[in-house]
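Thread amino acids onto this structure.
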């Protein structure tokens, strides 16, 4: 099992976000779930990878050559895949993953999250998509999604594609319940 993690690359964020990223990376590693992420050595991306590796987990990074040249890649991963473009990066990350989880982040995280949800809505994949709502970070976004649903721009059945919780275990249970049965195997191995 592999879970793709989308999250921020900024180092200038509150410790609560780093703590959640570290806890998620460690939990997945102890559960035998491989982490797939953007390959970076900064921000929450680095924290997830660091804690997954420290707990004996496998971590696959996917990074565009341009970011590698800027020395932003983490080089001690289980595997680092280098691609040419951001589009190739996202496609490879999605291909390698069985599910997706977004932690707090900025434009890039939001873009990746919404692409994963859109692909699920259009049935390009049947993978679970989750949002770890650390410290209420995404409350405003969730309110907007409810508003978009009320206004008819998002169908209620598609609004339910996004699993949300502030607790890692609860979110993983939602992800397992929302998609193919084989996902449930990593829920019971913390």
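Threaded sequence (190 positions):
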């Amino acid at each position: 099992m592999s879970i793709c993690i989308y999250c921020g690359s900024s180092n200038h964020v509150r410790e609560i976000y780093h703590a959640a990223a570290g806890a998620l990376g460690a939990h997945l590693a102890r559960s035998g779930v491989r982490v797939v992420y953007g390959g970076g050595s900064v921000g929450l991306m680095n924290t997830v990878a660091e804690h997954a590796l420290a707990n004996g987990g496998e971590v696959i990074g996917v990074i565009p050559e341009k970011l590698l040249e800027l020395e932003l890649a983490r080089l001690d991963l289980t595997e680092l895949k280098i691609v040419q473009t951001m589009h190739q990066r996202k496609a490879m990350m999605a291909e390698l993953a069985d599910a997706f989880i977004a932690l707090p982040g900025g434009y890039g995280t939001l873009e990746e999250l919404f692409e994963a949800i859109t692909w699920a809505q259009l049935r390009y994949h049947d993978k679970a998509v989750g949002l770890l709502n650390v410290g209420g970070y995404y409350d405003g976004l969730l309110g907007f999604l409810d508003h978009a649903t009320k206004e008819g721009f998002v169908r209620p059945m598609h609004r339910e594609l996004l699993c949300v919780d502030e607790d890692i275990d609860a979110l993983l249970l939602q992800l397992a319940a929302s998609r193919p049965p084989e996902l449930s195997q990593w829920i019971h191995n913390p």
